[in-house]
């Protein structure tokens, strides 16, 4: 019995998603498979991928140009929340999944499909992100995940595909699993599975090694309006152009590499390598601008509670959750005064904030200075310290009297 009549399949052109096409039709009785490849600025020519899907048996092969939407509606909100999973990973890959889920659901509704499908295995994070995103957007649509059930090894999948004319890669297969979009690259598997193995230089594509980076620093001034980056060096840029520009400059100076052991949603630890030059720089600049424009209580609360939770929700596939929606409202309220310019110095693998300014700045030089212009009332400090430390004083006195 068919699990579905018509299916929209998230398609990358790789072995697994290509094999999914004949597998869905032959093993699960699907009559029509429509593929959807999302252009998220990964720099690939998608026409051959589109043609390959048709050759593999798809009745229609769709390509969605979603780069602008990806940056504007997914990356920029994450930047406002300073989203770094486990305080390191800027979610460059994770942010793409809710958008792809949205595109799948929209395509299914447009073409009258009764199911959507993906090629994720049962071990990774993406299956969670796709399934939860799709369910949140359309809880009634079926979700098919052949690779989670077929039990084939990579070699088995290639052999299965060859039965239907799906050619295996001609060149020697890379041991690495790589995902790329405009925001960055994720690299895993192969020799990288040994946490003690230093990543070889060959795996990087967006960033230079520190050795090869320029011997002179370079500066960029990034301007934000209500938390959203809008200009570089005083020149207004579209979201895609802005990210592209910062990727180029930061990557050229060796900025943006991450090597970490992260905790996957399914409970295992994995060694992940990331390149995300622009995203890391924008989060650093934005966080610094918040320090200048937000009050201390808002800054501390947002970083300790909102930003960390926001990051985890994205990583765990809960972009469309009620809690994420509520946090968005909080974040947007905090961003009303986060406008200004941050100056970044790039040099030998480092991106350092060296200046910042804002019309909403809460920095008062007359209060901060130690010079003659000092307007701070030093005499008020003694009374403040007495009241501030009163509970500690009482505790110390009681403890001392009890202990004799």
Automatic annotation (TrEMBL):
Coiled coil: none annotated. Its EC number is 6.3.4.5. Residues 6-167 form the Arginosuccinate synthase-like N-terminal domain. The keyword Ligase applies. L-aspartate binds at residues 121, 125-126. The keyword Ligase applies. Belongs to the argininosuccinate synthase family. Type 1 subfamily. This is Argininosuccinate synthase. It comes from Cyanobacterium stanieri (strain ATCC 29140 / PCC 7202). The gene is argG.
């Amino acid at each position: 019995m068919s699990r579905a009549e018509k299916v929209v399949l998230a398609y990358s052109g790789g072995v697994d998603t290509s094999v999914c096409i004949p597998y869905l039709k032959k093993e699960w009785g699907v009559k029509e498979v429509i593929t959807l490849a999302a252009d998220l600025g990964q720099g690939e020519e998608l026409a051959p991928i589109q043609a390959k899907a048709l050759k593999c048996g798809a009745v229609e092969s769709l390509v969605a140009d979603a780069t602008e939407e990806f940056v504007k509606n997914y990356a920029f909100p994450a930047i406002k929340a300073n989203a770094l999973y486990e305080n390191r990973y800027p979610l460059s890959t994770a942010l793409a999944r809710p958008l792809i889920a949205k595109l799948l659901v929209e395509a299914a509704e447009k073409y009258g499909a009764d199911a959507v499908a993906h090629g994720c295995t049962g071990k990774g994070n993406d299956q969670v992100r796709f399934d939860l995103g799709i369910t949140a957007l359309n809880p009634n649509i079926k979700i098919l995940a052949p690779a989670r059930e077929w039990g084939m090894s990579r070699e088995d999948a290639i052999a299965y595909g060859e039965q239907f004319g799906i050619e295996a890669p001609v060149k020697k297969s890379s041991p690495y699993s790589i995902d790329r979009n405009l925001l960055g690259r994720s690299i895993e598997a192969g020799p990288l599975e040994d946490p003690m193995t230093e990543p070889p230089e060959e795996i990087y594509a967006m960033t230079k090694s520190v050795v090869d980076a320029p011997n002179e620093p370079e500066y960029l001034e990034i301007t934000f309006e209500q938390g959203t980056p809008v200009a570089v060096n005083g020149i207004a840029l579209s979201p895609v152009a802005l990210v592209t520009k910062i990727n180029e400059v930061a990557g050229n100076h060796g900025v943006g590499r991450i090597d970490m052991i992260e905790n996957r949603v399914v409970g295992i630890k994995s060694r992940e390598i990331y390149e995300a030059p622009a995203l890391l720089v924008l989060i650093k600049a934005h966080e610094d601008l918040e320090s200048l424009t937000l009050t201390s209580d808002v800054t501390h609360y947002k970083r300790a509670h909102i930003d960390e939770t926001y990051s985890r929700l994205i990583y765990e596939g809960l972009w469309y959750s009620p809690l994420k929606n509520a946090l968005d409202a909080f974040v947007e309220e905090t961003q009303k005064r986060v406008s200004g310019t941050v100056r970044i110095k790039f040099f030998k693998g480092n991106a350092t904030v060296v200046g910042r300014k804002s019309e909403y700045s809460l920095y008062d030089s007359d209060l901060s200075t130690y010079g003659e212009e000092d307007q701070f009332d030093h005499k008020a400090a003694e009374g403040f310290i007495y009241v501030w430390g009163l509970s500690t004083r009482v505790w110390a006195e009681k403890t001392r009297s009890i202990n004799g």
